[in-house]
Amino acid sequence: MKRLDVPTSVVRFGVFEFDPQSGELRKHGLKIKIERQAAKALSLLLEHPGQTCMREELQHRLWPDNVFVDFERGLYKAIHTVRKALGDSAASPRYLETVGGEGYRFIPVPQELSGLAVRPRNACKIDSLAVLPFVNQSAGPEMEFLNKMIIERIIDAISRIAGLSVLAYGTVQRYEYKEFDPRAVGQNLAVRAVAAGEMTRHNDEVFLHVELIDVGSGTQLWGALFKKPYSEIAECPEKLADRIAHQIRRILAPGMNGTPKQRAERAA
To answer: What is the C-alpha separation between 143 and 196, in angstroms, rounded?
Structure first.
């Protein structure tokens, strides 16, 4: 089988960046450790997103013909390492899907959005929302407190939108400290949209990626990465919460943007 050439440009998907030449994987700009064989597997999968990568292709990419290894065990380890690096799950895949008896498929994921996303014309009206606690990779009472403060503030702000039902914090609190499939959670909670995110502290900086997901179609309605000094967020978590709530409001209730006078003028 002819060996495919490794792409030379950096590939961006979701909150990740991958350099096929160096095998370097980054999340929110931070380098993530990934083994050489796993990086080779990820490189091949990213060459043909949405298409099944056959096991034989992976074997030729990962091990030359003159190398004898336990292929099954080696491939399983490589794929497991890729999923671990991406925070993915075989049971509820977001990035890497197993195609039974054939190989694996990389699920196409758009690069994170810094602004608004265009809603499909045939999309259902979003009339219910769950704002889930952020996945927090930086364990500690201070970060847990900030997580709770920001989520509660967002819920309070968004719940003022007329015609939109927002689940109370006590209803979504059980999803705290867990990684989950936001779409599956939204379906379990019987809401049309879910706001979810991941918060990471690195030295004195906090990285918070938030996205608004249409539960029915699985599409991202909005997404953004916020990068702030920890001291600034700790001093006033409400400021960041209000920024996030404002962005979500722009999607779910564009008519509420601006001052009461400006909204009245637009309605006139």
So the answer is: 16
